[in-house]
Amino acid sequence: MPELVDPAVRLRTSFLAAVAEFRADGDFPVPWFVTEIDPAALTDAAGFSAYISRLLNERQGGTQAVLTCDDTNTASRRVIEANGGRFIDMAGRKRRYRVPTS
């Protein structure tokens, strides 16, 4: 079953691709976690490792995440909903969901 995972150094390539996608998406404001990334995390593996360590140390026991998908992406919507995602609202052409992380 799909699940949300903690940030990890092994996910750096995927993380950088997601950051680029968020920045390129003109339909939705760039989220705080994209604008507040340590600059070194974007250019250097050691900087990324330090950034991940900082994030994990700052976590305050959150039990939900917000996920988005395009309104027309039925497959993503079904996966999110099948894993406990609750629809919050629409932001442009994006559907926002709260998803339990534990």
Mean pLDDT comes to 83
The number of E-state strands comes to 3
Biggest sheet features: 3 strands, antiparallel
Instruction: Give me the number of helical elements.
Output: 5
Class by alpha and beta content:
alpha+beta
Write the H/E string, N to C.
HHHHEHEE
Q: In angstroms, what separates the terminal alpha carbons?
A: 13 Å
Tally of individual domains = 2
Strand arrangement, largest sheet?
1-3-2
Helix content: 40-55%
Question: How large is the radius of gyration?
Answer: 14 Å
Amount of beta strand: 15-25%
Using the alpha-carbon principal axes, give the shape. Answer: globular
Poorly predicted regions are: none
Protein architecture, described:
44% of the residues lie in helices and 20% in strands. It has 102 residues and is an alpha+beta fold. The protein has a three-stranded antiparallel sheet, with helices on one face. A hairpin with a 2-residue loop joins strand 2 and strand 3 (94-100). The longest helix is centred in the middle third of the chain and has 14 residues, at 45-58.
What's the quick description here?
With 102 residues, the chain is α+β, with helices and mostly antiparallel strands. It is 44% helix and 20% strand.
Write out key terms for the chains shown.
5 helices; 102 residues; 2 domains; 20% strand; 3 strands; 3-stranded antiparallel sheet; single chain; globular; alpha+beta
Any chance you could write out the topology, listing elements then pairs?
Elements: H1 12-24, H2 32-35, H3 39-43, H4 45-58, E1 64-70, H5 74-82, E2 86-91, E3 94-100
Antiparallel strand pairs: 1-3, 2-3
